[in-house]
Amino acid sequence: MTIRTAIVGYGNLGRGVETNIKRQPDMELVGIFSRRSELDTDTPVFPVADIDSYADQIDVLYLCLGSATDIPEQATALAAKFSTVDTYDNHKKVPAHYEAMDEAAFQGDNVAVISTGWDPGLFSINRTLASSIFPQSQQNSFWGKGVSQGHSDALRRIDGVRKAVQYTIPREDAIESAREGRGAKVTSHNAHLRQCWVVADEADQERIENEIRTMPDYFVGYEVEVHFIAEDEFVRDHGGVPHGGHVITSGELGGTHNTIEFTLALESNPDFTAAVQVAYGRAAYRLKEAGQAGAFSVLEIPPYLLAPESLEELLARDI
Amino acid sequence: MTIRTAIVGYGNLGRGVETNIKRQPDMELVGIFSRRSELDTDTPVFPVADIDSYADQIDVLYLCLGSATDIPEQATALAAKFSTVDTYDNHKKVPAHYEAMDEAAFQGDNVAVISTGWDPGLFSINRTLASSIFPQSQQNSFWGKGVSQGHSDALRRIDGVRKAVQYTIPREDAIESAREGRGAKVTSHNAHLRQCWVVADEADQERIENEIRTMPDYFVGYEVEVHFIAEDEFVRDHGGVPHGGHVITSGELGGTHNTIEFTLALESNPDFTAAVQVAYGRAAYRLKEAGQAGAFSVLEIPPYLLAPESLEELLARDI
What ipTM does the predicted assembly reach? Predict the structure, then answer.
């Protein structure tokens, strides 16, 4: 049995999903749907305008679309025709997205798995599981070391900045506080260091550093490091998109202190997000095969549905 | 709506479950079933011989029984009458336990959640989830720092040992290897340090240390530390039952290295195991209410079923 999959959207995420599907033992990639007719890939490319006519040939459609406008504009129409998996990551709007996808998928008798990836996604699962274990818990999420796209863009808008990247780095003392149960005092500001790597002419550097350190919302109130480096060093060392972080939950049980920690250390944020999305495609397929319909968050999906192995194999291997 | 719970078995685990249930917002504790008529508790105590007559008054029965003989001898009869949660931890026999509990629970129209706790339990969930994310992965489990009951017992059997405890401690270099994707070379022997704290007369210490270091299966082939200490120091510092460990999974995605790590640092192994067991009682109750029957491993249970909060609250808070 092979799961027939397809991709809509071909940015970093879509390319990661494409590469990943080709490594799966139980999936085939029917094609990529794009507004562009020419993509640099060996996979068949179809116009996204024709997508509805492929409904009978595709079991799971991976929505590799942006959360800002593409998902809100396109996802429900796709969920009415296909079982889908998305990585919608606007945390505050997840309940509204869930509701919209639930209605669309239910009417189309499809399954829509929403907000996969790692945050939301694996971090969400860990937040729910860990806080359920303790009658009262202290929970902190930390992000990084990772590239913040928004902060990197802010650096690049400064006059004279030729190249720049900003890494968000959780402070070790804040992580230690969370592990020891003193995380209530940890705030976004005191938990994260903002590390900037900038290419600029020497004459501009003092002014640029001052503009960075006084930029409201983005840098004021944070511990900030500014490093000026040569362009070749920047190209060599700062081309990746690492990310990751920690969910740390602790609680008191019978007078003892107990800590649950989930950590991701990712060299490629988009490739890892794609890998999680691909695995949830297996769950979407199996839920639909089992007669389910509607939206499913990662909190509602039994872990074994992600694995290519059978439940019997997992019971013998992982338990 | 209150979940009516009861406990069978009143050792360290049963006491931990009792304390924990009393802190839950949606559970009441009907009583403890024991072979002993007098227990040091304010909770009502009933003879385990009469347990079947309480079937109508109890939604979830926590089996706080040993895995060696109690669970194999008693669990199926209890699952035929009650929805149950156990912490059966004989990894190799989990598939057989699953099958036996599935048949018994199904015939009684009950739900039996098996092998909760942390290993098996939370570690199992993480092993399945993490290995599902990578097309190919390297996965290592580490245990400790924690008290090994079997090794501590082995120390106490040595002539002249008055008090002793053995901590299993994962080696930092082995953990680092796993994080870096070189975990295939990590074995149980080279991954764990065995640290012994012993109270004994000075005249016996050289012989005792020699007996420890040459004890086959338990200590030969491991890095071993032996510390002789005074009795008052032992009583003051070594009365706890800490445990924990790591599940580390890494894989290559698009030429990048990515690591998923789940860590537990527990001051009380039995109280934490009890806390996980109690949370799965909520899942057992909800599955039964939803018309399900039979055995469920932790791999089959959607995470949100463990939380006292509703799915809507979790979608707004944890995602």
Answer: 0.96
